[in-house]
Specification:
Helix content: 25-40%
Number of strands: 0
Number of helices: 19
Strand content: under 5%
Length: 333
């Protein structure tokens, strides 16, 4: 029984040796060029993503061949033309540092070829700077994901072109306001748009970017940039002083003010009443304008402060106080 098993083993060994010898001699005589892709694929199950465009002709690179590894001289196929010099830094590391099979890149590897996006996202204050390059750029290179893939229709179905405002996904807070219409701004800033249309003024027809050159509240232009000199206004007024009467640039009218608004602000528009008041020397001259006029353009009656100081017969004979006392700004007798 043992001798029979030994005999079978010897026979199988001889068959294997014969097959190997035949295969080796066949290849030696015909060269690797006789092989087809289907033969290679039996052992080499994967093809680098970057080489899939070559198709199934392995011998485009692996010829003339003895059975060997991938040629190290990438330039033999890819050359060193203008595109290579543009995309790859001088002194780039070995090509295989990036062009490997199924190896995730580090951000630093990506930066070798893409320094501008890399630097932009590192300097950015947006939330994208906490993400690695391959978090968004997954799969084959280059893959640029649509914003909606992560964010959906963040600003609603009417504002789906993110790049209209966010010009660089690597610096998401950088917004090109000059390229945006006021209507587009209103999609996010609905309260502001409502204020402008509900309280129409000359500002209603001004593009948002005229006052907001950058998408930061601190960058909003001051009133004095456009209104450096307005007839009838107190000279040298700043935005803070303007807001004592004009609540915001979005609602410059109606005019509203606090009880402690300085009278000189009123006198800059209402020159004649202010002049008459200062020259009258009466008790009224010691009062702030807002004391009698708590709302803009509101003219109080004398009775609201003084009641009926005279007898009924006098009030009946002279129902209009100004017939004796003149105007409230220059009272007499």
């Amino acid at each position: 029984m043992v001798s029979k098993k030994v005999g079978v083993a010897i026979l199988l060994g001889i068959i294997v040796v014969v097959l190997i010898t035949f295969f080796t001699l066949n290849v030696a005589s015909s060269g690797w060029g006789a092989l087809e892709h289907s033969n290679c694929a039996k052992c080499h199950l994967t093809i680098p993503n970057s080489h899939k465009t070559v198709g199934e002709d392995c011998l485009k690179c692996h010829s003339p061949l003895a059975h060997q590894e991938t040629p190290e001289d990438c330039a033999s196929c890819h050359g060193v033309g203008a595109s290579m010099k543009t995309l790859h830094k001088k002194g780039m590391p070995d090509c295989t540092n990036c062009h490997e099979v199924e190896v995730p890149f580090t951000d630093e590897q990506c930066a070798n070829c893409h320094p501008a996006p890399y630097n932009a996202i590192k300097a950015s204050e947006g939330e994208h700077n906490i993400l690695g390059c391959t978090w968004c750029h997954v799969g084959s290179h280059p893959y640029i994901p649509p914003c909606q893939e992560c964010h959906g229709d963040y600003h609603g179905s009417e504002l789906t072109d993110c790049s209209m405002c966010h010009v660089d996904a690597h610096a998401i807070e950088a917004i090109n306001l000059e390229a945006i219409t006021s209507e587009a701004c209103g999609k996010c800033h609905a309260d502001v748009q409502s204020a402008l249309t509900t309280n129409p003024s000359k500002h209603t027809n001004v593009e948002c970017s005229a006052c907001h050159p950058e998408h930061e509240l601190a960058a909003t232009l001051g009133c004095e940039i456009c209104h450096a000199s307005i007839p009838g206004h107190y000279p040298g007024m700043t935005t803070r002083e303007c807001e004592k009467c004009h609540s915001t640039g979005h609602t410059p009218s109606p005019v509203t003010y606090a009880a402690d608004v300085p009278s000189e602000y009123c006198s800059s528009c209402h020159v004649d009443p202010a002049t008459a008041m200062s020259q009258s020397g009466t008790k009224h001259a010691s009062l702030a304008c807002a004391y009698c006029h708590p709302q803009h353009a509101m003219i109080p009656t004398c009775e609201s402060c003084h009641g009926t100081p005279h007898s009924a017969s006098i009030h009946q004979a002279f129902p209009d106080c100004v017939s004796c006392h003149g105007t409230a700004h220059s009272t007499r007798i």
